[in-house]
Amino acid sequence: MATSSRTRLSKTQPQEPDLKSDPSTYFNMESFLLLLFLTASLLILPLILPPLPPPPSMLLLVPIGLLLVLLILAFMPTDELIPGLPNDVALDCLARVPHRFHPGLRLVSRGWRNLLTAPCFHQHRERIEATEDLIFLVQALLGKNSGGGGEKGDGATVSSPEAYGLSIYNATDGSWHRLATPKPIPLFAQVAAVDGKLVVMGGWDPVTLDPVTEVRVLDLKRGEWRIGASMVVARSFFACAAVAGKVYVAGGHDAWKNALQGAEAYDVEEDRWLDLPAMGEKRDECKGVAAGGRFWAVSGYGTEGQGRFLGAAEWYDADAGKWKREEGMWEWEEGVCVGLAGGRMWSVECGGGRENMVREYKGNGKGWREVAPLPARTRVRPSAAAIDGGERVFLVAEVEAEAEGMEPNRGWILEVASATWSRLEIPSRFNRFTFSTAAVRL
Predict the structure, then answer these.
(1) Is residue 301 over pLDDT 50?
(2) How far apart are CA 387 and CA 174, in angstroms?
(3) pLDDT digits (tens, 9 = 90+) for 274-291
(4) What pLDDT was estimated at residue 352?
(5) What's the pLDDT at 73?
(6) CB neighbours (10 Å) of residue 100?
(7) Proportion of the chain above pLDDT 70, given as a percent
(8) How far apart are alpha carbons 199 and 343 in whole angstroms?
(9) Is residue 343 part of a domain?
(10) Is residue 209 part of a domain?
(11) Nearest-CA neighbor of 410 among 428, 392, 436, 389?
């Protein structure tokens, strides 16, 4: 049986955070409150006391000096993260707070903000096994307004049916919430995660329905959005996956629904796109997956072969700077591929006249072996992501109702070692069509 990745520690243990490396950042709240009280007193007392003769000019320095002393005291360094608690205990308390509450913690003081955004803080979360597996989902939203991509109670406006937003499923504690965004996510945008950063790219403009080159990057540790360098080519329905610190995109189609053959890679740290050689074939609606340290563009179809998915795939050889082709990679109508630990690739497939199934690729064009059937009545639009170091697979998909019509999405977790499914409870406001997903461990 596979050992949980939470119990595996690297040979080099993360360093304990140096809580005194910048003591001036911790705020002395008691002195600050005293300062506010005395300042208010100095302003109010002259209004309620009888007028006094003008004091000598030297006496004016007394209240001014007192205010200056209190101001200095208010911002004097303090080594305490939480007053009255040893710093190691306070650090453990803060490190165990779920990630969804970190935006509020960063507002408490400059010291807390600096701590929560420091690499050592996240290393400490890993050391004490307080990390969380977060799954980001690009979902269609429902509502009357077209505001900032969220729902009431989540710090954003309810969105229209033509708007997309970012939802988060915490696979560690089972919670769901909506991530407020500066503006709605483009329709059919792709999402990928690299080194604690979430990259949202491509898709359709919600108004014109034209493909966009827009890129947005969310620093998950700092909670800050920025506009990234635009893609070279506007595209939608393209393959996308993160490999070795870069986000690769390939194929898709342009504004005239012409299948694309080109590819590019985004260096998140340098904020620039690298032009890659074109693939051997045009591939619209190809599936992107990172497996074995490679970026794969699986299946897809050409402009003239609308909906007739190709059986071959291509993977990018970064060392040689060229694409390599493999046959026998796709045989069904709908599905998605995920990369697992050890370089394995699994497919979650629907349609094609066969039983809906999870299969594992045997490599070198040798086809697939069956792993486990999908949950009953799973039908279309699967979206999946590997979590927990590739030892579990998250899946959402639409299911066929016993009566006519379709039920909302359902969600499951597949345990890779035992090939068994467990059902997830999805709140109604998150029970929407999911176009793309990305998993992050924080």
Answers:
(1) yes
(2) 13
(3) 999 999 999 999 999 999
(4) 56
(5) 45
(6) 16
(7) 74
(8) 23
(9) no
(10) no
(11) 428
Which domain range does residue 34 map to? 23-127
Give the separation between CA 243 and CA 247, rounded to whole angstroms.
6
Q: Which two tokens stand for residue 389?
A: 């170091």
Burial of 408 by CB count in 10 Å (0-12 exposed, 13-18 middle, 19+ buried)? middle
Per the CB < 8 A criterion, the answer to whether 196 and 166 are in contact is no
Could you read off the pLDDT of 410-433 as tens digits, one per residue? 889 988 888 889 999 889 889 888
Q: Report DSSP letters for 268-317, one per residue.
A: TTTTEEEEEPPPSS--BTPEEEEETTEEEEE--B-STTTT---S-EEEEE
Q: How confident is the model at residue 36 (pLDDT cuts 50, 70, 90)?
A: low
Q: Is the pLDDT of residue 29 over 70?
A: no
CA distance 131 to 221: 12
Look at residue 214 and tell me if it is in a domain: no
Q: How many CB atoms are located within 10 Å of the residue 92 CB? A: 15
Burial class (CB in 10 A: 0-12, 13-18, 19+), 355: exposed
Residue 288's pLDDT is: 92
63 Rama sector, left if φ>0, alpha if ψ -120 to 50, beta otherwise: alpha
Angle at 60 between CA 56 and CA 65, to 5 degrees: 145
Number of folded domains in the chain?
A: 1
With CA atoms as reference, report the closest residue to 81 among 106, 112, 119, 124: 112
Confirm whether 217 is domain-assigned: no
Which one, of 227, 221, 183, 185, lies nearest residue 203 by Cα? Answer: 185
pTM, two decimals, is 0.78
pLDDT digits (tens, 9 = 90+) for 188-234: 999 999 989 999 999 999 889 999 999 999 999 999 999 999 999 99
